[in-house]
Amino acid sequence: MPRPPKCRRVEFLPGVTYFKPAAVPLRQLEEVVLAIEELEAIRLKDIEGLEQEECAARMGVSRPTFFRILGAARSKVADALINGKAIRIEGGIYHLVGARARCEECGHEWELEKEHNVETCPRCGSKEVFAGPKPGHGRCRRHGWE
Length: 146
Hints:
This protein is of the alpha+beta class. It is 28% helix and 21% strand. It has helices at residues 36-47, 52-59, 63-83; strands spanning 8-10, 18-19, 31-34, 86-89, 94-96, 100-103, 109-111, 129-131, 138-140, 144-145. The strands form 3 sheets. The protein has a 4-stranded mixed sheet with strand order 1-5-9-10, with helices on one face. Strands 2-4-3 form a 3-stranded mixed sheet. Strands 7-6-8 form a 3-stranded antiparallel sheet, with no helix packed on it. A hairpin with a 5-residue loop joins strand 6 and strand 7 (109-111). Helix 1 runs antiparallel to helix 2, helix 1 (36-47) crosses helix 3 (63-83) and helix 2 packs across helix 3. The radius of gyration is 17 Å and the shape is globular. The two termini are 25 Å apart.
């Protein structure tokens, strides 16, 4: 019996979790599901430009495991782009660290402090704020399911 997957550390939750080809009705589309930790691997490697060793350390996994996560993520994105499928971002085995909030009006991002209740943006005062769960929450046996 294989051991359960190790919980992955994630520093970012997306505000948009669904992408689809333009002018194609949803009922006609197939979907590809991209796990939260797969999106995090793409973000660390391709957006932040970090080396695989540093990416693996930030996610709390081995380098070969990071390579597998990144490969699976890139394969799913390529499948969606080449074959005209929608991408749904959800699920996975992770816990959120350093929870952040983002204002949808002005784009300002800030790190949430423990027990901080986010209702308005500190920069522009907008109530259009997206905030991830508090640190330590996520989908992980060690840190609790949701």
